[in-house]
Amino acid sequence: MTPEALADLVRTAVAQLLADRGLDATSLPAQVTVERPRNPEHGDYATNIALQLAKKAGVAPRDLATWLAEVLRSQKAIAKADVAGPGFINLTIATEARGAIVEDALEDGYGTGTELAGKKINLEFVSANPTGPIHLGGARWAAVGDALGRVLEARGAEVTREYYFNDAGAQIDRFVRSLIAAAKGEPAPEDGYAGTYVSDIAAEVLRREPGALSDPETVRKVGVGLMFDEIKRSLHEFGTDFDVYFHEDSLHQDGRVAEAVERIKANGALYEKDGAWWLRSTDYGDDKDRVVIKSDGAPAYIAGDIAYFLDKRARGADLCIYMLGADHHGYVSRLKAAAAALGDDPATVEVLIGQLVNLVSGGQPVRMSKRAGAVITMEDLVDAVGVDAARYAMIRSSVDSSLDIDLDLLRKHSNDNPVYYVQYAHARTSSILRNAADLGITPGEDFALLTHEREGDLIRTIGEFPRVVATAAELREPHRVARYLEELAGTYHRFQQDCRVLPRGDEETTPLHQVRLQLVNATRRVFAAGLGLLGVAAPERM
RNA sequence: GCGCUCGUAGCUCAACGGAUAGAGCAUCUGACUACGGAUCAGAAGGUUACAGGUUCGAAUCCUGUCGAGCGCGCCA
To answer: Strands of A244-247's sheet, edge to edge?
Structure first.
């Protein structure tokens, strides 16, 4: 019996109980969940449904729990149902019913679901300014955003990954001036960009267009193009590719910005003050209203965002998710207000704010000075620890917390990264499967033989996978998958320590060997699927 | 000053309002004729920044204080 099936069973039992006792059943939640109790002595699963319903039903929680436990005990698949504490019900699954979990895990697509089926999600992340390489912060969004996209897809969503190139406006002008200065061998402009990448790109521009210095427009075109390529290449090497690389400039060129502005103006969503046109972003929590059309008639930056949102919706997105760094948290209200001004539902805008990545060395924070070009890039991180360790370090913690990265520590103790703990567990399962194949041993299905405590732990943990992925998708928190894999790895390592899978040299192959082999097989598949969701390799040997 | 986010073991971080707050690293003690020891068993480490409140139950929700990061342009 899988936890999902158990939850359904509990729900049915509750509904029946409420009806039998003539209690108010309207408060029964649509979804009843069972949880893994922290303390294994409490049983395989626990439900607090009696606590949730007691007050509404007008019954003492323990009474309700006692009645419910009685109903549940009559089920064949449930070996034990005990009331505990204020009204928890602890449930233990019959040993012979646990095989369903292993069988599920052996199916293709274990962990996937359909609750997001038919939902088109536009997922925008990274979107770093194309005036330099991706930094540590961008690496965090690249890893987390990519993993989130995979998790959402696993639960049925149709995801478009998108990178918004801010290639219009003053910062690009500064970048181009920096390129020209570098090409002439002059120092970077006061408000420009330094760093070797600037001179590298400047040199490449001159190599391709020797006469470029006389034509700033050529420098812009070629130089910015090279920067785009560089960013795409480094992201690709990081394992993150986008479906759409969107150029802000294109919105201005073909009139979509003007069109969007006209539309919200016609909606009466803008007001005029001091010769400019303003958006009422304060209605959505902003500090102050924002200018959309400047008094000189030119569109402000936010006008591009409005047109971009309109374009995403026109391309069919039901939901637009923006992953932004904490330094952009002010955008939340503006983007919501923009959607409302267009006559759209602000709920189609979902902004995820992630805290920043700090670089530390020897416990001291290191200031990354962009002006001096003294920055740690995503590529530096990958060079130091490799793609898998870099991605994993970024993904495994919640984006709600700022993250401290100590490069020296990572370099020195690269094996300390929990990713190796997980990958090694996968490699061990692969090794056993290889050995079994060499010995000609085939998996068995006599799950009732799996009575060892470690086997039960492993089966229960495998059974959690689909719900972990579902929760990660629902809460937009891919780090849950990473944490789950660490738990699974620990459970597996302990299993392999205590439970011999293959027969030793002088032993005959028994059905227990064979069913354990099947359990290892299922475990390996969950590791592979979980690591796949994170975009991290699942090596068969290390 | 106002706003947003955060504050959990020595360090890096978990814990969708649930039971005794968990992992890894670092420290200490054990298991090596090992289906791969990149592993396992155990010890030690906490007033979840602080003070109130709500709740059967709070690290989690509410209020205040302290501390940290970020944001407060007709820049992009």
So the answer is: A244-247, A158-165, A120-124, A319-325, A349-354
